């Protein structure tokens, strides 16, 4: 049983700060749209923005540390309450943590270069504080299997620090290594959580027996992703990275096939997860191909995993969590079907068009961006009100 504080006190809190998913999911979705529009305009030469980061690096940094970081925190700060029975972060403390994340986003643009140290303090504060909150709950419940998220958040903070130091010292190669390492860590987290929740959700949503994991397959799906986060620092070992990506792609594709995706077709909150996980796995295979075949671009190929894979899984998960934790049935608006499809199309267009029609690459970027923005724009349209309002059943959270 979750140990919740007095419900009367809970109802006095601003709904936005009653549980971690509310501010971080909403702001993360807004950042997903705004940052991509800005990125498209920058690529087109329509605008020039002042920033403490090179604009080519800013895009990758914000999508990983800003957007993905917000969603990961929102999910963990919400899930840890269910895992441990320990009250989740709420009220003023949650508002403070969220404010640090938000102010750091603006600091990258608004603070002058001589205050870069302040940007670093802001940007490197929110993940360790969230890790402290998670550690307190997990240690209280003695749930050691969930403790690994704490060092993961600290490693992600270290990568953020390395990327920022690299920018400051004009060592863009170091920054790029940190960003790629963060990318594979995010894939690893999604693969871990996907293995936990997708078979469970599928079993409940289809009324079928839960598919049990094969231990060897689980290691084959997860360990190479963790190793890729390390080997990305050694470009001379690209052959090893290619083998690791190939193993991870095949293993994760076998995983999702075992989870019986065909059974999920009548349930949007299920088939969206399965489709996105298939794209994540397939994208790893394309990335491996690019490391072996020089005519393919590895940065382009990984976008299928990054956009259609973890972008699609994020959209499906935040849609499900937002419904469940606001006391609503797990039945999204039919418009969200288009949103789930749009993330897949965004990823596919991003890798196919530049390869087939390199002369139209800017148009391909914009089409991909528009599909992405439509997807997360629909989430904002249909979910903002529920994230800003109290639960329908008047329960805490």
From TrEMBL:
This is Heme transporter CcmB. It holds the Pfam family NnrS. The chain crosses the membrane at residues 21-43, 63-82, 94-111, 117-135, 147-167, 179-202, 214-233, 239-257, 269-289, 301-323, 335-357, 363-384. Keywords: Membrane, Transmembrane, Transmembrane helix. It comes from Psychromonas marina. Coiled coil: none annotated.
